[in-house]
Amino acid sequence: MVNIPPDVDRACARRRQPEGAKAPARRLQTAPTTARPATAPLPPPGDHPHRYLFTVFAVGADSLQVTTDTSAAVIGFQLHFKTLAKVAIMGLYKRS
What we know:
Layout: E1 50-59, H1 72-82, E2 83-93
Antiparallel strand pairs: 1-2
């Protein structure tokens, strides 16, 4: 997801949001890097724990010039020049 306004203080997962909750205005979900659309973490049942890395970037621009078809490579290129700070957290998830 890109172009999340700076006043947003929490993520809003599509499947788990409270009734009436909406994703942040102006945000844009871009094309996935796989054939599958982006979804919540979902490793195969019984497989080892999978690592999921979530990174939030603070950029020195009001928004990135992207569309829903913009690739992750192009977004990464733009972030390379506009990032002021970033933070990452890694989570492990396993399905029984």
